[in-house]
Amino acid sequence: MVTGSLGKDTEPAVSGPCLAVPPMPTPGDARRKVQLFLVLTFARTLEGRHWNNDGVVEGVPEPGKPALRPSPSTMSPQAEIRPDPPMTNSSSIRWPAEFEPSRCAVYVSNQSELAVPPERVWEWLIRATLWPRWYSNAKRVRILEGSPSELALGTRFHWWTFKTPITSQVLEFQPNERLAWDAKGPGVFAYHAWLITPTPTGCHVLTEECQHGLLARLHGLLMPHDMHDKHQIWLDGLKDSCHGGRA
Q1: Per the confidence metrics, is the pTM higher than 0.70?
Q2: What percent of the chain has pLDDT over 90?
Q3: What is the DSSP string of 130-179?
């Protein structure tokens, strides 16, 4: 041993490269990993309830029982659950019974005015494989069944959104007016719809989504503004693309 200038024992210097020692994980890190693992595991076990053999959709209450949903105090104004609206009115989204907003854990609504005809908006919307070019929250869009270039009634496609793998099928397809698909992924069962309405200056675009599932509830509780904000980015990207020309 050699003695340093302060009189404390020090180890002799070692020549050559020094290898960094990674920090030891703290108990808190380990706890968070275990909690995340348990949440994801539980969500995946619940996933089968979305389409089980009895036709039970997870998150839909039995008759006379309220649906579970985030508290309105934790949700953004845009995501607030509204009272039972007339769902069959031609001016609103046509929701399947299990996805009426009053029965869902999560509901968001976004809208925008575009100075282009409905046909231009439609061209950009049905070309799903081009979404990642103008919407950063859509990735790896791949058509599984149907036309390889455009959506149509019954088209099945796989994609990633909100960092989640999703399989969707087009369930409503009314050219230049209505487009809707379901979305099934780990802990999420959703329905996303678009409504395009002509106006004197172009068109009004409304897009809404309702969700069931454990991860949908957690996302709505922990990040109540996230889905609304991302869908607004989707609308803004659609507007910029439409104003830039045809798809």
Answers
A1: no
A2: 55
A3: GHHHH-TTEEEEEEEES-SSS--TT-EEEEEETTEEEEEEEEEEETTTEE
